[in-house]
Specification:
Layout lengths: L5 H20 L9 H12 L8 H18 L8 E5 L4 E4 L1
Antiparallel strand pairs: 1-2
Helix pairs in contact: 1-2, 2-3
């Protein structure tokens, strides 16, 4: 059994799902070497919303990270999160 609190696990799972969905549709340089940095930033942004925020709060938090990533790296362009479900950590991008 993990010692990681459930909200932290959910935030990490959502971050991984956001990143995977973004990467499936994004234009990115290859090889991309910042995966763990982006995942950590997504999880940190999403975590405060787990259990207290609305789906809209989670979507906004994730999209802020994606916006910052694109501002920092002009070679990265992709979709934004349009739905999020903290019960099963699923997200949809579009």
């Amino acid at each position: 059994m993990s010692d990681t609190p459930a909200p932290d696990r959910t935030a990490r799972a959502m971050a991984e799902n956001v990143y995977a969905a973004f990467c499936r549709q994004a234009r990115m340089p290859h090889p991309f070497r910042e995966e763990q940095t982006i995942l950590a930033r997504l999880a940190e942004a999403i975590r405060p919303q787990i259990g207290t925020g609305s789906p809209g709060d989670i979507i906004a938090a994730a999209n802020v990270v994606l916006d910052e990533w694109e501002r920092r790296d002009p070679d990265v362009r992709g979709p934004r999160v349009v739905s999020a479900n903290q019960i099963d950590a699923t997200v949809t991008v579009g």
